[in-house]
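Fig. S4 source data, part A: sequence.
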Amino acid sequence: MVNLKEILKTLYPIIVDILKALLTPAISIGLIYIAWQQYRTNKNKLRLDLYERRYAVYEAYRDLFIIVSKIRGCPDLEQVRKFGITISESSFLFDKDIVDYFNEVKEKINELYKYDGLLSNPNLSASESKDLARKKTKIKEWFNDQTNISIDKFKKYLSFEKVKV
């Protein structure tokens, strides 16, 4: 009968050599897994950061629309300035469709100010005043209509699971 101690003595160095040989690949596999997890974490962090920056721009846009739709005149210049500063980075965060849309919003705000200024002229005739008030009302209606349209425009950028990186 073969002695179990002798078999183990003979196999022990072989087992140790095999384990030594497997140690390096096992460590490599562990490091690859850690690197993969860091990659995924960093990618999700980038998505979250991008989402937060885009949402800040959307909030400035939404706040301006709330102001325009609730008041009779124009938003004050500080609110418009804040909106302008916030959306100035929009070309870095959004595609051309949103950048063009923000330019259209700025044009409508400028028109709103223009008509507001013209309506304050006391020398206007009744027909001129009525025509300017109609044009101003049309712009205000455009702003009101944008509430639902804007949700669709921003959805692809603010739907968190589909944040475009």
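Fig. S4 source data, part B ends here. The mean pLDDT is 86.
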